[in-house]
Amino acid sequence: MKFWKKFGWFMLGLTPMVTVFLWQILVSGVGMFIYSFIAEMQASQTGAEIVYDDLIEGFLSGTPYAIVMFVTYIGYLVIFGLWYWLMYCRKKQTGAWKQVLKPQRIGGIIGCGFAVQVTLSLALTIMLPLFPKAMDSYMSVMEGLENESVFMILCVCLLAPICEELIFRGLTMRTMGKAFPWQAALIIQAVLFGVYHMNLVQGIYAMLLGLLFGYIAHRYGSIVPGILLHMAVNSFSYVIGYILPESLEEHTGIMIAIAMVGLAATIGFYILLLKGVKPQPKLDAVSEAEVQSIPAN
Predict the structure, then answer these.
(1) Pair 215, 130: CB distance under 8 Å
(2) Which of 240, 244, 233 is nearest to 111 (CA)?
(3) Helices 52-61 and 63-84, interaxial angle, to 10°?
(4) pLDDT tens, 23-72?
């Protein structure tokens, strides 16, 4: 492939990320404007003075932020769902994703999602206190996501997995794969997935998760299994705090031991999820005859 053609595919592979940030800026700006306008109207009626630092804090920590997140992800779903369908699914679909419906693979998804959260939660609990600045930055981000409103739960458990898999494993990795070997495309999308989170700590573990989700997409030739695993990982984030007692933080050795068990379980369930699944051909290169010949293991 000629250099300029590869470069064109590379640039096209970056456009979903650019679109993400543009849409985020637009929705956040409009949401903040509406929230400020309502607050000023209420203040003018009561004669109260507006403190803009408190206004911003209220916006980021309350229901308004959850609503903005919900609208943002609905926009992602429309924009990137249509984009992905037009580029890759309109004419050729393999149905290879149905391999994930086997009981052992569903078990692998649930087990892997839980094991990832155990490992991640304990690793952060152990390591974050060693880096106070990174910890403060990370906790400020997570405070907004800990909002347990219906809007935020829908975003975290349902909309975010679908939209992020569409953006990064669907569009970015598939498009980058037209310019680079699949291994390079896998790494590029994972790095971009980390950058997308705009926080050092969250970006690091998002990049690692991006590699897991990306390899699943490569093996199955579909983003559906990755969406299901992503949903499991995110959903268990709401229950992990009830499973791991706070008193555990006083016993570093036990936390390290459980984290290592969690890591081993993550690997084991991930292998179970992939066992017997052969790498699928790129959807763009699959003919109708080849579609019929793909085995449903």
Answers:
(1) no
(2) 233
(3) 60
(4) 999 999 999 889 888 888 887 887 777 777 777 777 777 788 889 999 99
